[in-house]
Design a protein that fits this description.
626 residues, alpha+beta, Nuclear Transport Factor 2, Chain: A, Beta-lactamase, 3 domains, five-stranded mixed sheet, five-stranded antiparallel sheet, 22 helices, 24 strands
């Protein structure tokens, strides 16, 4: 070949390569770009950016904004599934995820599994609520580089300009909360919120004055003055004065409607079957009830027309939640409430069944209720009721037996701390069991001097005091018994003072532990016992037997003889000093398969607590052996 021909061949070959390279690097078509930009804007919920890509941004913005607001997803993704660049059309795959689904963790509780539990338990994920579909949009205008023709159906199948999308939860049925005998204790009921709107009436004070007399027979604490005070605190916002049951509303409904500014709104709530039954334990049960409904609720995505009719697009029906069976005994609860209702001081009673750990009653009077759930979480010095722990520690130390004779002077100076007995009574030298029954502070203080720094802490843990429990439906604190490093601190701790604290629940658990011989796991929902942050070795059976005998002597010939008429009741009184205030009164006891604690704040002696224990026990003697 000649050189010229060779050059020509090479030139043609290079030209072909260059042309081929240009063809391979051609970018996405107008259709692909528009579809991808639209899908990306929807996925990041950029309403304005997505709407701007359409032929009618105003209509598109309204529809897209409503879609995200009405569905309120946890996640939404739009993916371009296919395009036809010549026709300018494309399809989108949509994937919506919604909040909800059963959560297998117990309601209201956060727990960390042990190593063995983690090794044998597979976490259960919440059920997914997901809606997927495909839509088609576009047209020749898109292929020519123009806007995407606006059509609401591009967002979801069947969507039109006159329709909206809505996500809603579907209740699967309301469970009942049952007492220990299977009878309904709490059920879902309709209440009416009575609200006064000061902005809707020229004279709110006059409306308050008209409203109060109608409500006082139902809620005696309500007055025209209290409503006016609450209105002032609401700073012009509507004030919900009361929630009325249907039976309370019916006689006064028309009169309420006639008061200017008063509105009535229906609402469903979990209420006790007996309106007179009240307990701090009910709040935890309400939480469990709400969680049970959420766990079994269904869901639906609906296409809602302008006339309100709705079409199901996706979802699942709810299922009926199982009833919540509790350990609460209505008769024991009612008796506990009645026993302290009329006391002017804050008062509480907690009762536990030793054989099962079931919580039978948690009661507070109105003065206590104003302070919160003190029966379950209030911490106070337990006073002489703590001598149960002190005596247990002494017996386990081996230096004494119940019959060991010890001095019980009226006053003793021990490690620089002057310890008096109540009213300075002096028994001389008496057996330990007598010193316990008569509540000799001087004896107990002297016993504690030679104990180790952790002896009282360890003994308290053997009865559940100082153990933290995670119990479904029940938030509790038992108490605290820190190590006592000095003899003086041990003297204070021995008589339930100093840094020792306990809740009424904690002392009821102490009594239950003595009765059972080991600490029962507290339980409010049947079959769901609490789990403690530690599991101490129980006190020896000989020690708990000795304590039961001493607690019986306390009733027959000691400081609680007011209860001697009640067969076989055992207990320990306590008076706890509080700086600058009247002393608190305590009584912890056991009557057959019921262990309990009575607390009366500022009682100045154990007498009011012992009397309340009698009012609590006498009406329910036939219930105690169930």
């Amino acid at each position: 070949m000649s050189p010229g021909i060779t050059f020509g061949v090479v030139a043609v070959s290079v030209s072909a390569l260059v042309l081929g390279g240009v063809a391979c690097s051609t970018g996405p078509t107008e259709t692909e770009t528009a579809a991808q930009d639209f899908a990306d804007a929807l996925s990041r919920r950029d309403v304005q950016a997505a709407a701007a890509l359409t032929s009618d941004p105003a209509a598109a913005s309204s529809a897209i904004g409503q879609m995200f607001e009405g569905l309120n997803p946890t996640d939404a993704r739009f993916v371009v599934a296919s395009t036809d660049s010549d026709a300018g059309t494309f399809t989108l795959d949509a994937d919506w995820t919604f909040a909800g689904g059963p959560d297998q963790t117990a309601a209201g509780e956060t727990t960390t599994p042990t190593a063995s539990e983690a090794a044998t338990t597979t976490p259960t994920e919440p059920a997914t609520r997901e809606w997927t579909y495909t839509t088609t949009g576009g047209g020749q205008a898109v292929a020519d580089g123009g806007a995407i023709p606006w059509d609401p159906a591009l967002l979801a199948p069947g969507l039109t300009a006159d329709a909206t999308l809505r996500y809603t939860a579907l209740a699967g049925g309301s469970p009942a909360v049952l007492a220990d005998n299977g009878a309904p204790l709490m059920t879902e009921q309709t209440v009416t919120l009575v609200t006064l709107d000061p902005a809707a009436v020229p004279d709110p004070t006059a409306s308050a004055a008209a409203l109060a007399p109608l409500l006082q027979p139902i809620a005696p604490a309500i007055s025209a003055e209290s409503i006016s005070t609450d209105l002032a605190a609401s700073q012009g916002r509507p004030l919900t004065v009361i929630a009325l049951r249907d039976s309370d509303l019916a006689p006064i409904e028309a009169q309420l409607a006639a008061i200017p500014g008063v509105t009535q709104v229906k609402q469903s709530r979990l209420l006790t079957v007996d309106r007179n039954t009240q307990s701090p334990a009910f709040e935890g049960l309400r939480t469990l009830w709400e969680q049970a409904q959420a766990d079994t609720a269904g869901w639906a995505v609906q296409l809602v027309q302008s006339d309100g009719t709705a079409q199901w697009l996706a979802g699942q029906d709810g299922t009926a939640a199982p009833d919540i069976a509790t350990t609460l005994d209505p008769a024991i609860q009612a008796s506990a409430q009645a026993a302290i209702a009329d006391l002017p001081q804050q008062a509480a009673i907690v009762a536990i069944r030793p054989s099962t750990g079931g919580v039978l009653a948690v009661a507070q009077n109105s003065a206590a209720g104003a302070q919160g759930p003190i029966a379950l979480t209030g911490l106070y010095p337990p006073g002489s009721t703590f001598k149960i722990v002190t005596t247990s520690a002494a017996l386990q130390g081996g230096s004494v037996t119940p019959d060991t004779v010890l001095p019980c002077p009226g006053v003793a100076t021990i490690e620089g701390r002057t310890i008096p007995n109540d009213d300075n009574f002096d028994l001389g030298s008496v057996p330990l069991h007598t010193a316990f029954a008569r509540s000799c502070n001087t004896t107990m203080g002297q016993l504690a001097v030679s104990m180790t720094p952790t002896a009282l802490h360890d003994a308290a843990q053997q009865f559940g005091l100082g153990v933290d429990y995670v119990t479904p439906g029940l938030t509790t604190v038992t108490g605290s018994v820190p190590p006592a490093d000095t003899p003086a601190e041990r003297v204070e701790s021995a008589i339930g003072q100093g840094r020792v604290t306990a809740s009424p629940f904690g002392m009821a658990l102490v009594a239950a532990s003595v009765a059972r011989g080991s600490t029962p796991a507290p339980m409010l929902v049947q079959g769901q016992p609490g789990v403690g942050d530690s599991t101490p070795t129980p006190a020896p059976t000989t020690v708990t037997d000795d304590l039961q005998a001493m607690m019986r002597e306390t009733v027959t010939s000691g400081t609680a003889t007011q209860l001697a008429d009640i067969p076989d009741v055992r207990g320990k009184t306590g008076t706890a000093e509080v700086a600058g205030q009247p002393a608190h009164g305590w009584f912890v006891g056991i009557d057959q398969d019921v262990a309990f604690a009575v607390f009366v704040a500022g009682a100045d002696s154990s007498g009011p607590a012992v009397d309340a224990a009698g009012r609590f026990l006498r009406p329910i003697q036939t219930n105690l052996t169930r």
